[in-house]
DNA sequence: GTGAAAGCGCTAACAC
DNA sequence: GTGTTAGCGCTTTCAC
């Protein structure tokens, strides 16, 4: 049997409540008692029972992350691990534990989150992605739970969220290619039900429009966050009679797929095709050629999400803070886009 | 206020204990009562309070993962994310939640694990790495906690662990190069305090020895699990008067660093240098040339660790199961090692 | 098959 | 500044 607050109290010759007060650094406790009690705790190897504390305080000091049903199909592992690192780091700094949950379909996700939240095991949830018509968001929103979305919800513009300005980021990427003289620019998007895909598509189109450039439907391809998508998009583009001279890609991994395909067909990057992608994972500098990419501050996204969620948990009443946090992005130009189109 | 077991009991006209029995599918409960109570639970939106249950049952149905202090410095993110995916998948299947913890130094790690375990918040721990003289292992071992190590402990050979046969895996990789006619084979190791580094070094040396080949001290380089280490090792090797014609590398990411360096110096892989590394991350097939690598079944390591830990939690008494599980490895040969040394 | 009662380890009024 | 008391929501003997 573990040593409890009562055991400590008895040994110290004080009441359990005094011990409890020492534990929580209650102001009205004598330095003397506090010192003595702390000593005895140390001596007896006392450890507060977190569950018991939670039960009475009605707060768990933990938050939960929902992993998407099939992480490997949606995003690169790198993305999620970075996010998690950011979340966990900031959470521990604020004294919160992080629980990881996942479900193999949307129903399981809702059930899991419901069990954890309604069962009072966690105080809030971080959603790592934003998709259209997400029943998990509906559930969280309708039941007044604390949660923050990494990304953007179209349905609930007013919920707590941490996001990049993806429209602007994609605009920047496209603008970069335009400034190099490119006039035929393609776009490889992600799954259409993800908000991030839509935002980046919009930025791309806006940039073309503002520059007075043509946007052809056939220059836009949808796919997954997978190499295969890039590979397929590449072979589609390269067979076009009027093929693009450069592409903006939703994700580095997709760009790697394009790179591989181009390599097999003996095309040269950037001479035959310029590439700019998103996420700036470490391997972008290692590929041949190194890949231009938009750094979206993944760690920072996670870190901030953690921060915002815990803040909202701690003052559920006032909502003085920013509902929507934007993490800055930054275009990192590397060899894959260092080629100006010759004037004609 | 959330609806409790009492509320349900009152509404159903039964006692709280009956409701509790329905919840845990007690055998001696009438089908009729059970049906009725379940209906009312549904109606009232009842959710069992996990904390309260834990408090009395003295079991939390959750396990904890310790993230190494600086994941980014030690291993690739990919490795950890795969591990976590495996762990979380199997844990949820068995009805366990997974908590992620981390510390910025060994003391914080011990404190964190101690708080969680002694505070009765988790039932067991998975350690994601094995280093020499790890105080976390000491703590876990000395206090009789449930834990499993992914890797191997030199100090405690008898603890629960899930590992590859790293000696054999490294032997296989080296043998592969030998069979291609290589006689000067280098080895780029990881941090020397990690057991995995030692095991793989041993396999490499054994293979050389069994083949009657020379092993030179200068052909062995230690580093981190970072590209930079590979880069540095490469420039060291290539400046040797009697330089190796092939290298075994502790990790794919390190191999990428070598690849970049060779590229910059206009060396060709595999003609000038053959490479075989470990982990077989998805990008190994995308690099130029694609990288030969040992697939160590990362997901499987995590999955099995989860399984073994939960098993040990559930029957703390009997120890009929295997103390040490070995996950099979598999050499994937790609272009980076497809070059036989010309006979002389 | 079901109920009454005690108690898991802790906190928080309310006393003094 | 400290003790007393009640109770958080649940399980689990022990009755009947």
From TrEMBL, chains A, B:
Protein name, as recorded: LacI family transcriptional regulator
Keyword Transcription: yes
Organism: Paenibacillus anaericanus
Keywords for this protein: DNA-binding, Transcription, Transcription regulation
Record domain HTH lacI-type: where: 3-57
SMART domains xrefs: HTH_LACI (SM00354)
InterPro entries in the cross-refs: HTH_LacI, LacI/GalR-like_sensor, Lambda_DNA-bd_dom_sf, Peripla_BP_I
Source organism, top-level taxon: Bacteria
Pfam families assigned to the protein according to its UniProt record, in alphabetical order: LacI, Peripla_BP_3
Keyword tRNA-binding: no
GO molecular-function terms, A-Z: DNA-binding transcription factor activity; transcription cis-regulatory region binding
